[in-house]
Structure formats: C-alpha cells, structure tokens
Amino acid sequence: MINVAILGTGKIIPEAIDAMRASKKFHVANIWARPHSRDKAAALAERFGVEKFTCDLDDIAGDSTIDFVYVALANAVHHEYAQKFLAAGKNVIVEKPFTTSAAQARELIDLARSKRLYLFEAVTNLHLPNFYAIRDALPRLGEIKLVLCNYSQYSSRYDAYKKDHAVAPAFDPKLFGGALTDLNVYNLNLVVALFGLPKKISYVANRGWNGIDTSGIATLEFDGFIAQCTAAKDSGSPSFFSVQGDGGYIRSTSPPNELTSVELVIRGAEPEIFARNEFAHRMIHEFVDFGEIFERGDYSAVERGLKVSLDVMTVLDATRDGSA
Q: Staple 40 to which of 2, 9, 81, 307, CB 3.0 to 4.6 Å?
C-alpha cells in the first residue's frame, strides 16, 4: 500500500478517504490540520481509524514512511503547501484547481521534474472510463462544430453569502474561489484535455457583492469550432457535456465531474450508450490511476497530466482579464 498524509479537514476529506480506501492503492497514515482545526483532525482520525493526526507539518515532511501528501486546502494555498512537500522530497496530489496561476503551476512542475517526483492534480473526470469513451469517439463525429457544457449547482452556502454576507472560501476572491474555479474548472479540464489550448478565451460572469463570480460563461475559440463552458453556484439546472460534429454528437447528461453515462449518436445510425465507469463514486478512479502510475513508474503519464494542468491554468489566467 502507498502511504499518504492528508492536509485538510474540509468537506471533501471523508469522501477522499473513502475513495482512497476503495482504490486499494492508498493507506491514509496521517491527517494534518491547522491548530484551530485540531479537533476536526482528531475526529476524522478516530472516525476512519487513521493512526496519526498532527498540527506540525514537519511531522509529515520528516516521516520517511510517507509516500504521498494530498493537498486538500483552500485553493489559494495549493502552491505553497505542494511546493513545501515537493522540496521535502514527497510526491504530491493537489486538489483542483492546481494553483492560482500558470506561473505557479510551472514552478511546481519544474520542481517535481527536477526531483523526479510524482505530482498529480486531482480532477475526477479525466480519470473516468467514460471520459476515454468520449475521447475515442471524437473521430466518428466528423468536423467538430460546437462543444457545450454546463455544471450548475445551487450552493448550500449561497443563501448565507447573499443574505448575511458570510464568505465561505468558495465565495472568497482572495482564496481563488468562485464558480469558475470551483465548478467550471471541470468543464475546462474536459475541453482542454480533449482539444488542447484554444486560440482565444473570454469570460463573462454574474458577480456577487464582493466581486466573486457566482456564475459565468467561458468561451473558448478553436480553429473551426467554439466551446462554451457554463457554471453556476447561484442557480441550478440539469448539467451536461456535449460535443457536436457534422457527422453526429456525443453527450453526457450527468454533471461533468461524474460523466456517469454517455450517448453517442452518429447520423443515420442507432444511438450507442457507454456506461463504463467501474466505481459508483467519482473519486475512486483517479486514486486507482495515481496508484497504478506510481507502482509501474510511469513518469510519462505524470507528464501528460501536468501538461493538461498547466494548459488549464493558462486558460484561467486569461479569464482574469476577460479575454486573451
């Protein structure tokens, strides 16, 4: 088993621990929290039978039995903590979004490469078998004309944000929150992983009282087609991902981070349905992938993943100015 230390005590941590265990690749050996969250770390350790918890980063950095560190902290500090543990010689998994800028992403990538360390961004949809089904079906669609995706989910924290001006990290501009980095980043990862960097990028958003984008639309222009990526935390609607070509279309009517089922329709042929995801929970596939890549020493797979991470951060950089 691969020993992993977890940084953070947020809502995603119980899901991540369950997914790591279900992957049969990772063993959670330690949970770190800031001093004010010590009780949360203790409760998580007791709940999941994790043998250690700590508020001292050096306890993890100096532990030779720890293979990986999983960074699941506020978006704005991903770079800081990933950099610390890469410098300490640890392999790192960083929750999405990878960093807050392409420059930060390059720093982490260069550091990992210099030490031949494994560095992964945890973006669930890029590890799902149904994602590979979409990728493999693209040539059958003919010339791509439109890519449309929507991940809209009314946030459980939006009422408090709107009525009481309570700012959770997901609604804090200083912490790199917002609909773009929380939800739309899944859409962007799908588009960039399938088609690469666009030639032009624009972003328009509805903004809350503190300037955070509560919903918005990113438009990515490629040679010959346009991709439109929509996400919302201030409203909800059915989510989907679709690619339209002059020979047919492929679509998933589940949230873009899950891709639970995919329909391929080629003009003049019967629809084909793909439901290839092996696990019910979206996070298990990514931890299986990370574990297998590490076990077989496949650094080329690390490089492929990091290229997507850097390209997505390049797109996010461009949205700050509204266009690029």
A: 9
Detail the DSSP E strand segments found in the chain.
Answer: 2-7, 26-32, 53-54, 68-71, 91-95, 119-122, 144-152, 200-207, 213-222, 225-232, 240-245, 248-252, 262-266, 272-274
Whether 320 is in a domain gets the answer no
Mean pLDDT, the chain, rounded, equals 96
The count of structural domains within the chain is 2
Q: Which helix (H) or strand (E) holds 80?
A: helix 78-87
pLDDT bracket for residue 323 (50, 70, 90): very low
pTM: 0.95
Domain boundary among 78, 100, 122: 122
One domain, residues 174 and 98: no
Domain-terminating residue out of 122, 155, 172: 122
Give the pLDDT score at 320: 80
117 with 153, same domain? no
Place of tokens 């279309």: 249
What is the C-alpha to C-alpha distance for residues 169 and 155, in angstroms, rounded to an integer? 12
Q: Give dist(CA 283, CA 14) in Å, integer.
A: 11
Q: Is 143 a residue whose pLDDT tops 50?
A: yes
Beta carbons within 10 angstroms of residue 228's beta carbon: 16
Give the domain extent around 263: 126-282
Do 48 and 174 belong together in one domain? no
| C-alpha–C-alpha distance, residues 157 and 159, integer Å | 6
For 23-58, the pLDDT digits (tens) are 999 999 999 999 999 999 999 999 999 999 999 999
For residue 84, is pLDDT > 80? yes
166 and 258 together in one domain: yes
What is the distance, to the nearest Å, from the Cα of residue 54 to the centroid of all Cα atoms in its chain?
Answer: 26
Q: How confident is the model over 178-190, as a mean pLDDT?
A: 97
Q: Mind listing the pLDDT tens digit for each residue in 227-247?
A: 999 999 999 999 999 999 999
Does residue 210 sit in the same domain as residue 173?
Answer: yes
Does some domain include residue 319? no
